[in-house]
Specification:
The protein has 155 residues and is α+β, with helices and mostly antiparallel strands. The chain has a single domain, classed as Alpha-Beta Plaits (2-Layer Sandwich). The protein has helices spanning 28-41, 68-85, 109-117, 119-122, 128-138, and strands at residues 9-15, 45-52, 55-61, 100-104. The chain has a 4-stranded antiparallel sheet with strand order 2-3-1-4, sandwiched between helices. Helix 1 crosses helix 2 (68-85). The longest helix is centred in the middle third of the chain and has 18 residues, at 68-85.
Protein backbone atom coordinates (compact mmCIF):
# COMPACT_ATOMS: atom_id res chain seq x y z
CA UNK A 1 0.00 0.00 0.00
CA UNK A 2 2.32 2.70 -1.21
CA UNK A 3 1.57 6.22 -0.02
CA UNK A 4 -0.79 5.02 2.72
CA UNK A 5 -0.17 6.59 6.12
CA UNK A 6 -2.40 6.05 9.11
CA UNK A 7 -2.44 6.32 12.85
CA UNK A 8 -5.64 5.02 14.37
CA UNK A 9 -5.47 4.45 18.12
CA UNK A 10 -8.39 2.27 19.21
CA UNK A 11 -9.52 1.61 22.78
CA UNK A 12 -11.93 -1.34 22.90
CA UNK A 13 -13.82 -2.80 25.84
CA UNK A 14 -15.60 -6.15 26.08
CA UNK A 15 -17.03 -8.27 28.85
CA UNK A 16 -17.24 -11.86 30.09
CA UNK A 17 -20.53 -13.56 29.23
CA UNK A 18 -23.01 -12.97 32.05
CA UNK A 19 -20.50 -10.54 33.58
CA UNK A 20 -19.18 -13.35 35.74
CA UNK A 21 -16.00 -12.55 37.69
CA UNK A 22 -14.04 -15.27 35.90
CA UNK A 23 -10.93 -13.24 35.15
CA UNK A 24 -9.33 -14.13 38.45
CA UNK A 25 -6.08 -12.52 39.61
CA UNK A 26 -3.81 -15.40 38.55
CA UNK A 27 -5.41 -15.66 35.07
CA UNK A 28 -5.34 -11.99 34.11
CA UNK A 29 -1.59 -11.45 33.50
CA UNK A 30 -1.31 -14.51 31.21
CA UNK A 31 -4.57 -13.69 29.44
CA UNK A 32 -3.53 -10.10 28.79
CA UNK A 33 -0.14 -11.25 27.50
CA UNK A 34 -1.91 -13.74 25.23
CA UNK A 35 -4.29 -11.04 23.93
CA UNK A 36 -1.31 -8.78 23.22
CA UNK A 37 0.18 -11.61 21.16
CA UNK A 38 -3.09 -12.04 19.26
CA UNK A 39 -3.02 -8.33 18.42
CA UNK A 40 0.59 -8.55 17.19
CA UNK A 41 -0.14 -11.67 15.14
CA UNK A 42 -3.06 -9.91 13.43
CA UNK A 43 -0.86 -6.94 12.39
CA UNK A 44 -2.05 -4.61 15.17
CA UNK A 45 0.31 -2.71 17.44
CA UNK A 46 -0.72 -3.29 21.09
CA UNK A 47 -0.35 -0.27 23.37
CA UNK A 48 -2.05 -1.62 26.53
CA UNK A 49 -4.09 -4.67 27.51
CA UNK A 50 -5.63 -4.93 30.96
CA UNK A 51 -8.96 -5.28 32.68
CA UNK A 52 -10.65 -6.49 35.78
CA UNK A 53 -12.60 -9.52 36.95
CA UNK A 54 -15.34 -9.32 34.31
CA UNK A 55 -14.05 -7.19 31.42
CA UNK A 56 -11.05 -6.34 29.28
CA UNK A 57 -9.70 -3.11 27.82
CA UNK A 58 -7.41 -3.26 24.80
CA UNK A 59 -5.67 -0.25 23.28
CA UNK A 60 -3.92 -0.72 19.97
CA UNK A 61 -2.85 1.00 16.81
CA UNK A 62 -5.15 -0.32 14.08
CA UNK A 63 -3.52 -1.60 10.89
CA UNK A 64 -5.16 0.07 7.87
CA UNK A 65 -6.14 -3.22 6.22
CA UNK A 66 -8.17 -4.47 9.18
CA UNK A 67 -11.52 -3.34 10.58
CA UNK A 68 -12.09 -2.85 14.30
CA UNK A 69 -14.83 -5.49 14.31
CA UNK A 70 -12.46 -7.98 12.67
CA UNK A 71 -9.79 -7.33 15.33
CA UNK A 72 -12.29 -7.76 18.17
CA UNK A 73 -13.63 -10.98 16.65
CA UNK A 74 -10.10 -12.38 16.32
CA UNK A 75 -9.18 -11.38 19.89
CA UNK A 76 -12.36 -12.74 21.46
CA UNK A 77 -12.38 -15.98 19.46
CA UNK A 78 -8.73 -16.82 20.04
CA UNK A 79 -8.59 -15.79 23.70
CA UNK A 80 -11.70 -17.78 24.65
CA UNK A 81 -10.34 -20.78 22.71
CA UNK A 82 -7.04 -20.48 24.61
CA UNK A 83 -8.85 -20.38 27.97
CA UNK A 84 -11.05 -23.37 27.06
CA UNK A 85 -8.36 -25.50 25.34
CA UNK A 86 -6.05 -25.10 28.34
CA UNK A 87 -8.80 -25.88 30.87
CA UNK A 88 -7.94 -22.72 32.78
CA UNK A 89 -11.44 -22.47 34.21
CA UNK A 90 -13.72 -25.24 35.43
CA UNK A 91 -16.57 -24.11 33.18
CA UNK A 92 -16.71 -23.23 29.47
CA UNK A 93 -15.63 -19.64 28.91
CA UNK A 94 -17.26 -17.12 26.55
CA UNK A 95 -17.24 -13.38 25.99
CA UNK A 96 -20.51 -11.42 25.74
CA UNK A 97 -21.42 -10.36 22.24
CA UNK A 98 -20.64 -6.78 21.33
CA UNK A 99 -18.00 -4.33 22.41
CA UNK A 100 -17.33 -0.63 22.75
CA UNK A 101 -14.60 1.01 20.67
CA UNK A 102 -13.28 4.54 20.91
CA UNK A 103 -10.49 6.36 19.07
CA UNK A 104 -7.88 8.71 20.45
CA UNK A 105 -5.24 11.06 19.10
CA UNK A 106 -1.57 10.24 19.55
CA UNK A 107 -1.27 13.03 22.14
CA UNK A 108 -3.83 11.16 24.30
CA UNK A 109 -2.07 7.78 24.20
CA UNK A 110 -0.24 8.02 27.53
CA UNK A 111 -3.42 9.02 29.36
CA UNK A 112 -5.33 6.07 27.89
CA UNK A 113 -2.48 3.66 28.59
CA UNK A 114 -2.30 4.82 32.23
CA UNK A 115 -6.07 4.52 32.56
CA UNK A 116 -6.03 0.95 31.25
CA UNK A 117 -3.00 -0.10 33.30
CA UNK A 118 -4.71 1.10 36.50
CA UNK A 119 -7.96 -0.82 36.06
CA UNK A 120 -7.84 -2.68 39.36
CA UNK A 121 -7.28 0.51 41.33
CA UNK A 122 -9.91 2.31 39.25
CA UNK A 123 -12.57 -0.34 39.93
CA UNK A 124 -12.04 -0.22 43.67
CA UNK A 125 -14.07 3.00 43.50
CA UNK A 126 -16.15 2.74 40.35
CA UNK A 127 -18.33 0.12 38.68
CA UNK A 128 -17.79 -1.16 35.16
CA UNK A 129 -21.28 0.08 34.26
CA UNK A 130 -20.45 3.66 35.32
CA UNK A 131 -17.12 3.47 33.50
CA UNK A 132 -18.66 2.17 30.29
CA UNK A 133 -21.61 4.58 30.21
CA UNK A 134 -19.24 7.48 30.85
CA UNK A 135 -17.18 6.42 27.82
CA UNK A 136 -20.32 6.29 25.66
CA UNK A 137 -21.37 9.75 26.87
CA UNK A 138 -17.88 11.23 26.51
CA UNK A 139 -17.81 10.13 22.87
CA UNK A 140 -21.43 11.24 22.35
CA UNK A 141 -22.55 7.78 21.28
CA UNK A 142 -26.29 7.23 21.25
CA UNK A 143 -27.12 3.99 22.99
CA UNK A 144 -30.12 2.10 24.26
CA UNK A 145 -29.99 0.49 27.70
CA UNK A 146 -31.49 -2.71 26.26
CA UNK A 147 -28.43 -3.20 24.04
CA UNK A 148 -25.71 -2.57 26.61
CA UNK A 149 -23.74 -5.33 28.32
CA UNK A 150 -25.50 -7.14 31.13
CA UNK A 151 -24.66 -5.01 34.15
CA UNK A 152 -24.82 -5.93 37.79
CA UNK A 153 -23.96 -3.89 40.85
CA UNK A 154 -20.28 -4.61 41.35
CA UNK A 155 -19.20 -2.13 43.98
Amino acid sequence: MANTYTQMNVHAVFSVLGRENLLIDKLRPELFKYISGILKNSKQFPLAVNGYKDHVHIFFELHPTTSVSEVIQIVKTNSSKWINDNNILAEKFNWQSGYGAFTYMRSQRNDVINYIINQEKHHAKRSFKDEYIDLLRKFEIDYKDAYLFEFYDDI
